[in-house]
Amino acid sequence: MKIDGIHYRTIWVADDGWSVEIIDQTRLPHEFTIIRLQTADDAARAIKDMAVRGAPLIGATAAYGLCLALREDPSDEALARAYDMLAATRPTAVNLKYSLDAMRDAVGKVGHNARAEAAYAEAARLCDEDVETCRRIGENGLRLIRGVAEAKPGQTVNVLTHCNAGWLACVDWGTALAPIYMAHDAGIPVHVWVDETRPRNQGASLTAFELGRHGVAHTIVPDNAGGHLMQHGLVDMCIVGTDRTTATGDVANKIGTYLKALAADANDVPFYVALPHTTIDWTLTDGVAQIPIEERSSREVTHMTGRADNGEIVTVEISAPGSGALNYGFDVTPARYVTGLITERGVCSASREGLTSLYPERKG
Q1: Is 202 annotated as a binding residue?
Q2: Which residue segment(s) compose the domain that 339 sits in?
Q3: Distance between CA atoms of 186 and 207, rounded to whole angstroms?
Q4: Among residues 243, 250, 281, 331, which one is catalytic?
Q5: What is the CATH number of the domain that holds 86?
Q6: How many structural domains comprise the chain?
Q7: Residues 118 and 206 in one domain
Q8: What CA–CA distance (Å, rounded) separates 162 from 223?
Q9: pLDDT tens track of the chain, all 364 residues?
Q10: Which single residue of 47, 190, 258, 294 has CA 20 to 30 Å from 143?
Q11: CATH number for the domain including 270?
Q12: Is 243 annotated in the active site?
């Protein structure tokens, strides 16, 4: 995607040929800053502190983290240490383990002296795979938006999304936003209701930033406005992303997604989840019971960062001093509230039968 006419991915190898550069998402939307990662510790810190976020991008960053580790020390011991350190950064997103396992398999096939080169090649392959996967998700989701548009000719298609599942959450294109970008580029009148997505405001800061730079009509709304919009017929469909999807179609996404799904179900609004195959955890069957839910710092709830009237970026306390806060990063939406899953292979029901119809190699 483009920022001020320049094409960017969210992660890339720097001009020196070995260090890795990322967009610091903690500074958006008010500052566009690029960070250089030079060690595996740098990559782990970027993931943990959410300079990068979104399941696919977390996986890509971890892959390059292993590259940086093996460049310094290609031994089995160094590989194991870096793997464990990076795997521990974010527990909910399964893409992290997928990428680390792919990297470990790739470098395990070559001698120590060739490991760094093999690692960089595999990380680049994983990034390219993610871009193509997201492009196909966009094409499959576009058909759904086009169907809504054809049912209300000449009118705008209103899509509600929660959190950020655009290109900033992936290497490029995004998952939930890819169909919206393609619809906009195809000339379909589309408007996005952007949940602010407390407590880190990924919707208000990142999704709105993306959509605005691409020229997509959008409106930021408080998190609790979704049900009201649906009651009044102002939402045609919901599209969200997911950080982990069970083999039976349950999805874990940013906290608050479950409430949107309940409101959509109560108001007969289609609720779609867009995901790459790397987000499916085929070992799990009960998302509520089995998906680990990350608990983050209470400071994300009690404090907020933004731009003051004088242009300075400041962090302020917004809660009553001394009050405790609980900060679960994700919740689980059971499959029964999901209208369909939008994948790179097509759209299916949120069920084991639906998923295995697209991924028959996973039957049994």
Answers
A1: yes
A2: 138-362
A3: 20
A4: 243
A5: 1.20.120.420
A6: 2
A7: no
A8: 8
A9: 888 788 999 999 999 999 999 999 999 999 999 999 999 999 999 999 999 999 999 999 999 999 999 999 999 999 999 999 999 998 877 889 999 999 999 999 899 999 999 999 999 999 999 999 999 999 999 999 999 999 999 999 999 999 999 999 999 999 999 999 999 999 999 999 999 999 999 999 999 999 999 999 999 999 999 999 999 999 999 999 999 999 999 999 999 999 999 999 999 999 999 999 999 999 999 999 999 999 999 999 999 999 999 999 999 999 999 999 999 999 999 999 999 999 999 999 999 999 999 999 999 7
A10: 258
A11: 3.40.50.10470
A12: yes
